[in-house]
Amino acid sequence: MSRGPQRHDEPCPVCDATTTHLVTIELRQEGPDGENCAYSREPYRVTECTVCGRSRASRVRSA
Ligand SMILES: [Zn+2]
């Protein structure tokens, strides 16, 4: 539940090299309001380069 960010080596397009990234999973609500009765939250995998600070999020697809 309370896991901190994990470190993962990934290529960074800004650094143009493989650098250490902090990886966190966060839930984001998407879609316009009232799209559904239920909340539609999608998990996003957020990676932040520890060298240049660039972060980006990509949706995690389960299944
Ligand atoms: Zn970088």
What does this structure look like?
With 63 residues, the protein is mainly β. The protein has one domain (6-59). It has no helices and four strands. The protein has strands spanning 6-12, 17-29, 41-49, 55-59. A hairpin with a 5-residue loop joins strand 3 (41-49) and strand 4. It starts with 5 loop residues before the first strand and ends with a strand. The structure holds zinc ion (ZN). Zinc ion binds at residues 12, 14-15, 19, 49, 51-52, 54. Zinc ion is lined by residues 12, 14-15, 19, 49, 51-52, 54.
Summed up:
The protein is mainly beta.
Topology:
Layout: E1 6-12, E2 17-29, E3 41-49, E4 55-59
Antiparallel strand pairs: 1-2, 2-3, 3-4
Spans of at least 5 consecutive residues whose pLDDT stays below 50 are none
* Tally of separate domains: 1
- Mean pLDDT, all residues: 85
Q: Order of strands in the sheet with the most strands?
A: 1-2-3-4
Give the cofactors and ligands: zinc ion
Tell me the number of strands.
4
From the alpha carbons, calculate the radius of gyration and give it in angstroms. 14 Å
Percentage of β-strand residues: over 45%
Protein structure class: mainly beta
Output the helix-strand order.
EEEE
Helical stretch tally: 0
Task: Give the N-to-C terminal Cα separation.
Answer: 22 Å
Tell the overall outline: elongated
Helix content: under 10%
Biggest sheet, open or closed, and with what strands and sense?
Answer: 4 strands, antiparallel
Provide key terms for this protein.
63 residues, mainly beta, single chain, four-stranded antiparallel β-sheet, 4 strands, elongated, binds zinc ion
